[in-house]
Fold these 4 entries.
Entry 1:
Amino acid sequence: MKWQGRRQSSNVEDRRAMGGGKGKLALGGGLIGIVALLLATFGGEQGAQIGQVLQQFDGQNVQVSEEQVRELTPEEIEMGEFAATVFADCEDVWNQLFREMGRTYKEPKMVLFSSTVNTGCGSATAASGPFYCPADEKVYMDLEFFKELKSKFGAKGGDFAIAYVIAHEVGHHVQNILGISGRMRQQQARASEVEKNKLSVELELQADFFAGIFAHYNKRYLDEGDIDEALSAAHAVGDDAIQKRMRGHVEPDSFTHGTSEQRKYWFMQGYNTGDVNAYE
């Protein structure tokens, strides 16, 4: 992706050189995916036992260690500048699209962190991966996640894999301010566990679609192979791909993010159409 020398967002807070602090462990945001993965991985009676243990932590204060302030490496500085450029591109795209809808886009903020982080949804660890917190309207990114995406999940890597994930999380912010996620939570409150999962999949696939919208309006900055990098990342984090890798088989009723093919399909729908209303 062509990003050097372009505008960087002023809505980025870099906490990577700071300690994570202490606070309440959040089971929302990206951590929901980890909890779901644990339950899906072990399943049955063992999964139920894990669920009971996790419930014991709900509402309790969990202490996380503080880290000493350190100096960022040149690689970390460059990664932060790249992420800030992508975030600026997201701002440009969604400001334009909201104007076309006759609305005003409320820009989110992005927090770069390592180890642990305090959020409006509670405290989280790097194990949560990237996530969006609707309580403070911030995207939280541990950029080390992308090394694991390549080494542990088999993605190609590359800078546009990072851009895809950032744009996906910004997609959750778009859902939040449009009221889509709020309406979905109301439906989930009345739904069975299987139906809740299906509704969660719908939200995640729409966020992939919005990431494709972002890519559509940034074609002039794309290098050859960038879309393949995004599709490789989308494939790697599909529920079926993760479950096959973790336990050798899949359970569709436990999916919360969609299959690899679904994630790739909806990203490409956004990329090919550029039409916010093309998600059905």
Note: The longest strand covers residues 109-112.
Entry 2:
Amino acid sequence: MMKLDILVFAAHPDDAELGCGGTIIQQIEAGKKVGIIDLTQGELGTRGDVETREKEAQKANEVMGVMVRENLQMADGFFSHSSQNLLKVVEMVRKYRPDMVLANSVTDRHPDHGKGAKLVSEACFLSGLVKVETSIKGKWQEKWRPKNVFHYVQDRFVEPDFVVDISSVFEKKMEAIKSYSSQFYNPDVKGENTPISSKEFWFFLEARAREFGRSVGAEFGEGFVSDKKLGVKDIWTFL
């Protein structure tokens, strides 16, 4: 079993790249081990299909340098906050034993994002209970609870608890997002127009990153909300 420093959960393939792709790249370049777990295959997406999005996710992985990526194949648009789905997430947390978990926004335009956020947060708590029993391929898993669970801000603006300066890796983040050519603006790909397939959506992504960056004196940033109150041991660690 591979222990990861950071495990990112995403309701759909491309959520991780959009919401925290810069942070992922930054941490990997700093030597951290990062993995992604997609809850669904994004099968309800207006453009593309499961096979296409899987290939696009692998391409994005190569751009970012992600070590592992798995898909839990929950029902896109219809997955529920069930014990079965909670245990699927618990199994992944115990399998990779991350110190930090990044998850979807707690509220957003797509209802799967909020559902995914709540599902992952609760599963991270349950994963630390010894009486919640799970196994993979017949091997019993030990309890594990991440030190922190943070939610990346997505389509709708949410006031972040902190912002990560991603100025040095912003272009690489955009390259990873562009791996999903079936989903986002690409003049060479035909398909029905969606809120994220227009050229204007690229402007929005840059504007949001600049907005968060400006708030902390950086060019580009990504915002996060914490499941718990954050503390520092040294007041000088702030930007």
Note: The chain has a mean pLDDT of 95.
Entry 3:
Amino acid sequence: MILCASPHAQYLELKGEIQAAIQAVLDSGYLILGEQVRAFEEEFAAFLGTKFFVGVGNGTDAIELALAAAGVGPGDEVITTTHTAVATVSAIVEVGAVPVLVDVEPRFYTLDPAKAAKAVTSKTKAIVPVHIYGQACDLDAFQALAKEKNLVLIEDCAQAHGARYGKKRLGSIGSAGCFSFYPTKNLGALGDGGGIATSDPALAEKLRLLRQYGWKERYVSAIHGRNTRLDELQAAILRVKLKHLEKENQTRRTLAETYREELASLKEVALPETRAGSEHVFHLFALLTEKRDALLAHLKKQNIQTMVHYPMPVHLQPGYAKLARFSAMPEAEKVAQQELSLPMHPYLRQEDVLTVCKEIRAFFR
């Protein structure tokens, strides 16, 4: 079976380093918010080019805390894309705000800046563009919009660890950048994890308070907070994997180029593009085809795993249809009907990519 993603293959490759890191945590006796978390926060902030990074329990919590720390709450509107993992929108709802769902650009499948600008009202407080599939949003446009309308710009980087926009890493450009360390991510834990990057010291301090009951000192809550902490074991594992992230991202780009070369002749398929001036990290290799479901079934018969990201835009999901404000979404609905994610991970063999491409060409022959 050729897998779409394989955290286990990465674990086997890094097994010695990971097991040593886990053993060091167990030997230390510290399991929550200790030296491993502090070290990872410093190292990931340095990698991103931000002054601070605050680890939390998962990527959804990261967005929720970033919004709350920025003062977003009940009665506020937050603009984001309808084409995303539902976690983005869930976090907005959790702070009591109203998600304003906007369509995507046709070439890159990221939040459309022009349509986002039209969605701004007097109640709009923040914008959360999602760097979907490892592709950077048009951050120049969103920075300009945020400045013009006095909005908070929070990047959803859950699929874009290490990607760049110009010379800057994604997550370092907005007021905050939110990350998930779910196991299949480019930088993934062996369990849940997340965090927020920022260069604003006041925002970082607020985030630290919010993640642990509002404590400045133990058992004394300076503000209302909650419990969402990145634990020592996951931080230690992430420190190991961070050392390999750049190399693994380059491997993803090399595999993506093979897909492009091998599938370029197929008129029935729209291959992913990379925004000019940015660097894609191919968390997913997402193509579009009108024959998506049949192609998926064909590849499954050949023991090739593929996935759909995502089969239903958030504005069509029953749990959010009444909670969000939105208008027509033709591009996002097209992506939902046609998108197929091919196998993509840094331990995928080149010969497996060639096999996948051979079977796709055979299907369209």
Note: The radius of gyration is 20 Å.
Entry 4:
Amino acid sequence: MPFDDQVADALAFVEDLAARSDIDGSRIGLWGWSQGAWIAPLAASRSTRIAFLVLVASTGVPPAEQMIYGAAKHARDAGYPDAGVSAIIAARRLVDDWRRGRVPIDRAQRAVDDLAREGWIEQAYLPRDLAAAGPWPNMDFDPEALFATIGVPTLLFYGEDDEWQPVDESVAAWRRAAKAAGNDDVTIVRLAGTAHAPTLGGRDSIEAIAPEYERTLVAWLRRVARLG
């Protein structure tokens, strides 16, 4: 779904909350994880309603670059040879250039076919038939430029490692953006033992949430949202 549509949905929900008599409209914040950590700051950049942001795995590189990183890391973790990883990166760049209108579809399709023939397609996260693939809205969206517009208190959680995005580059993007925005209330936390989700042991359950995540989040919200 295009980012603009997701932002519109988020802001409509915020307005519904602000209209409620049991909600303090001056203390509404947004929590976003992964792609949602792009949508939440986009919403904050378009509305004065948003008082704070909590973002988990907020990626500081464009979506196209993020997927190249993620596909390559998944391929390495799956034991693909260097040649396979390089082929995946090259194919993704070629397919992205086809989406941008820079190369013909048959050239990009050949790269995808080559990955399939070599047995490397599974970790490439590419459509097998490009003719049936739709467009990729926002693939070249610039997160750092967005982050530089954010002036509200922001809490950022990153994993010790991340299978989908380059953490160090994302942290650096936020630090540069906060300086450019003059936002001195940006807190960055690296959670030991976690990856893309704030959970331990690679588990996908609420019971596996890192204790540091919970402790930090609660203390931060008490300060910023003035919770008792």
Note: The chain has a mean pLDDT of 95.
